[in-house]
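ok trying this again, last paste got cut off
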Amino acid sequence: MEWKKILLLAGATAGSAAVLWYLLKEDKSAGKLAASSEDERRRLAAKPSVEEITKEQVRQILKEIINSQDQMKGFIKELTQELLSQSLSFDETYKKVRAVQPKDPLESHGLSMTDFDKLLDKYQQDPDVRDSIAKIMGAPSPSNMASEKVQSISVRKVIEVHNFMLQELEKLVEDFQKVPGKEGYDMKTVTIAAQAIVGSKIEAKFGLTSEDIESAVLMYHANLATDQDFAQVNIKIQHAMGKLMGTTFTN
């Protein structure tokens, strides 16, 4: 599906871990359903049918996802700066994210990612739906893309940053595997905390923010789309994110 391919490109950039979480969440849902209690099964049985959900409702859900994402982007920016100035453990970072994280709009509407996937397929030709998907993708502002700082970033630098991102993410995944009681952690919160930690490492080493990197990726999208090094590091980042969440990413 074309919209998912677009989101996966975004999910591999430093600023979009929550986007990738939505995509990988689908693989986790099946296991959770098998382990559901009777009350949970009744709740799922009472949820709205995909066929009953209108285009207007899909537009509204997308707006809620965008609002939730915007809130978290602002918080992550602040948290990244805090991580640059002081050392926080993963657990401390996780708790800071958990304290401000808004409720998942899909959960609020009783929808699984599989349900929403079907709805986006159904209405993907609607201009409002497509515009909302583009916003969720996290396209940076034109002014940031035109900045001298972003213009000075080369294709090689983009790939170098992503390789560093992968290294830091793999270290974080290894450390997280050793955390006692990690099964009780909320996986979306984990991915956002990981994003802030890795983002702070990138900014400390390269002096580049998540938005700078996203802008550079979009600026060079034509070059990067055919670059094998970039493709390979993206796949490895997605696999690392899948491992962090305890799921498997299939490309």
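PB: full thing came through this time. The first helix runs from residue 2 to 11.
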